[in-house]
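Forum: Protein Structure Q&A
Topic: Joint prediction for protein chains with partners

I've read a bunch of threads here and the consensus seems to be that you should model interacting components together rather than docking separate models afterwards. I'd like to see that in practice. Below is the full input, 430 residues plus whatever partners are listed. Could one of the regulars post the assembled result?
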Amino acid sequence: MEVTVVGLGYIGLPTAAMLANAGHRVFGYDVSPGLRAQLRAGATHIAEAEVQEIVGQALASGNLTIVDDLAAAQAYIICVPTPNAPDGRPDLSYVQAASKAIAPALRGGELVIVESTVPPGTLDRVVVPAMRAAGVDPDSIFLAHCPERVIPGAIVRELRENDRIIGGRRPEDAHRAKTLYASFVRGEMHETDSTTAELVKVVENTFRDVNIALANELAVLCEDLEVDAWEVIRLANKHPRVNILNPGPGVGGHCIPIDPQFLADAHPFSTELIQTARRVNARMPNHIVRRVRDHVPSGEHRKIALLGASYKADVDDSRESPSEKLVALFEEHDYTTAVYDPIARGFSHGLVPSLEAAVDGADAVVLVVDHRIFKSIDPSAIGPRMRNRLLVDARNFFDAAVWSAAGFTVEALGDGRARNKPMFVANSHL
Ligand code: SAJ
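Posted by a regular:
Agreed with the consensus. Here's the joint model:
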């Protein structure tokens, strides 16, 4: 098939490559001329080695071409972002624009798939009207929503292996979309209607947000109860029907903190639990700052070294990362911050070039992201460079005994065991 992929980000580019490597003739289009030029020059903006490999292979075979204008094809896959607008409402303008842009090329019989995560009802209420407004009869084409489900860090494996939910505007639309995915998906493909598929995607991410909120609430509760939340969760998960996720400094990324809002925004009175979970997770950076303030007085420009700027371990993406909020909060309380992350890109507050630059003269180290590379940090090497030796470990990542032996006061998020006495008395509360 000839397939045009609209939007060459974290999902569009690997999907285009998978299709090309499965033998389709794929045209990759992105509105960013810079990205198009970069890809043509052979540089892939996604750091995962497997993604770079399949993209390289697709370009080299000639089956994937990066195009400057939307190319006419038999199938179109829309993989554009759907962020929250500044007012917190879903911004569907990219989906709308992509639908409009495709419309003039449609002659009848083409397949149009939306992969972008969208609020339930978007295909019917946004895409179909955009097509109609552009003079396309939606009954003359095949229209489906097939949400992406891959986890950053294992994109290629999950593209191939995950089950797919395929929601058609009509049953025949889903059926037609399934034949395209069958060329590279090894998981099962489940056909349903488009609104159900849209909701399933948002619910998957909402489930994770709510589960993490429970873990975060437990972390704060266990600090009050003076027990260790990590031990509580580990033992509770020994139950065959319990699987609580891990507490952390906040839920970041471009999916999990955003998608539940799609439901809350449209249905404010029937999403109480979802909204509460969002608030619990959004407050975690404040809690981390409070743990630091228990030991290091605010208002004196004391220096806090943050380890990690990306939204989670071993990825370079900094969108909605907990460190973005942590820096702002620390600065609000007149601390100075230095953020070190050898992997992250696009961090808005800037990064220091080395671990030494982060810890020199610092009053605390805060472990925000559990990058594997941080495991080798030696507390006895950084301790002497610091003014006060405090570690606040927001992921329970480091070996507390090793850091204590190096003279650090160690505070792990959720570990309420009365092990550490505050070095300073906090002078106010957040
Ligand atoms: N996090 C915790 N505790 C945990 C797990 C995660 O605090 O136990 C935090 C992470 O540190 C990170 C955030 O949550 O800040 C999100 O990370 P994640 O690994 O849970 O999810 P994403 O955003 O990388 O990818 C999710 C996935 N959704 C589900 O697992 C249901 C992925 O499959 C989706 O394709 C992706 O969202 C998406 O694009 O929607």
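The chain is about 40% helix and 15% strand.
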